[in-house]
From TrEMBL:
Phylogenetic placement of the source organism: Bacteria, Pseudomonadati, Pseudomonadota, Alphaproteobacteria, Sphingomonadales
GO cellular component: a single term: plasma membrane
Protein name in UniProt: YdcF family protein
Pfam families: DUF218
Annotated organism of origin: Pontixanthobacter aquaemixtae
Record domain DUF218: where: 35-178
Amino acid sequence: MRKLWIAFAILSLWLAGVGGWIGQGPEESPSDTADVAIVLGAAVDGDEPSPVFRERINHAIALYRQGRVGRIVFTGGRGPSERLAESRVAHDYAIAQGVAEANILTEEQSATTRQNLVQAEAVMQSQDLDTALVVSDPLHLRRAMLMADSLDMDAKASATTTTRYQSVSTQLPFLLREVYFIHHFWLFGE
């Protein structure tokens, strides 16, 4: 029984450490620039981005307006209950916010974070674009950047400064989800 408690304590410490590491987020600099901002997809509600997705889109638009990126790549296909692709909804939202359509690129095939990055990289290569700022929520970016590194992308993190996940009751489930998915990535590469 003692060995079981020791194993449980070690596992608990490991998971808490990974959670803390995820919570710190990847290294980023407010002066980083790139060819594009890659906005990782999230849920949509009809033809409107979810609050989480809207904040990712708004962050990319801010990077664009600050001149830190020249173009924006929106990612995300259609979820099972979604009428429109996430990237199409983001595209339309950005245009309504004044982003020039010529500076918006989309991919509509991806359904996971890794697929978002693979498809975004293909879009970038088709346009001879090399560098990216990956935009997502702070808790999501640690895993996203591990994936970008595994794909040998020339990418840096750019976390949203506003997020729907502000209280412990909303952050904790998202953090636990990320702890699970980062282990899944380490074990299976996805």
